[in-house]
Amino acid sequence: MKVTMVGTGYVGLVTGTCLSSFGFEVICVDNNKAKIEGLEKGIIPIYEPGLDTLVDSNLKQGRLSFTTDLIGAVKQSEVVFLAVGTPSKQNSEEADLTFLFNAAEEVAKAINHYTVIVIKSTVPVGTCRRIKDFIKKTNPQADFDVTSNPEFLREGSAIEDFMRPDRVVVGAESERSRQVMDGLYKPLSLLETPVVFTTLETSELSKYASNAFLATKICFINQLADLSEKCGANVQHISKIMGLDHRIGKECLHVGPGYGGSCFPKDTMALSFFAKKFGTSVSIVDAVITANKDRKLQMAKKVISACGGSVKNKKIAILGVTFKPETDDIRDAPSLVIIPELQRAGASIHANDPASHEAEKVFSNVTWRPCPYEACAGADAVVIMIEWNQFRSLDFAKLKQIMKTPIMIDLKNIYSVHEVESAGFFYESIGRGKV
Ligand code: UGA
Known about the structure:
By secondary structure, the protein is an alpha/beta fold. The protein is built from 17 helices and 14 strands. The relative contact order is 0.09. The mean pLDDT is 96. Uridine-5'-diphosphate-glucuronic acid binds next to helix 9 and helix 11.
């Protein structure tokens, strides 16, 4: 089966590459010429562990190719994925579908045989049906079906998530398109991966429902952490106890400075927005959005309080600025709120992150250091913001020697209270009350 992937952003590139390693011939299309030229040489524009090797091997085996020629690619494919960005509109919670409709228009004009159009981009309910009507209008002769196939990939572990998914969701209307999609995901049948076939609308909503629910779990446990701090309980034990209940599950119960990234913040806002448009409310999700925004500010206050109530003229070392480990992505990262808050309060920030190149473009007023110890040299306090592996076994004796004051604020609870305190640090972490 020949597949075209329109859009070589995060989702398109990972999905296209993984499908080619399933044995399909995949043509990845993008209108960014420089990006395509780079990809043809194996230059990967995003940071995703393992992706470079996979692209390289599939390129060499001739199953994966890159082009700017959308029409040529569509004409020879049975399946065409649309995996273009659907960012939030500027100053709005609504998803911007401009890229998607532009791509659909081009694809519509190129269809010359039965083609299954797969909407991979995260889109508000009703969009697949709108795309179907739009393609019909643009090219009344076109023989096609539109299916919805949301992605559930996490940055940093996207390849594993694609190769070993918990489930695949397909919204399809005709038996013919269902069979094509079934064939596409046949390689996962050995793993007995559930492939759930449903309607277009259910498939679209299932993506938002999943992300919003996971975001709710994170906010819930973060609020429980605040309560634990006040009443002397240990939130890490609470997470473990809750997670052992199969009805709850252990994922997304790790406390932290609030969720970030390109998905949870955008998708919770979009869900809230289109629920209102349908005349209903998802007030739980609205509360989550507010709680997560507040959390980031609250974390800045926590740092200031651990520093004795003021960070004026103090040097604060920040370890981890991306929105999570194993990515260079800083979209909606907690650091985007916490660092400016500390700076406003008079702190000078020295930071280290194993993938700081994107962050360095945003924070020109931060002193970037190549390793955690250099960031901590002479610091009044160190804040662990993101749980990169590199920060998990710091040499406390060395840190104590090089820091001005041994204060550690661990927003990801990567250390035990005992080990840090016994090393002579004042240690503040999340939800491990000391009553
Ligand atoms: C998320 C979903 O997990 C994927 O299933 C989905 O496909 C993707 O969005 C998407 O819509 O494209 P991602 O944003 O890459 O994936 O990252 P996650 O690992 O889910 O983390 C999101 C945020 O939640 C991060 O800021 C992370 O630090 C935070 N988080 C996650 C917690 O604070 N606690 C946790 O227990 C888990």
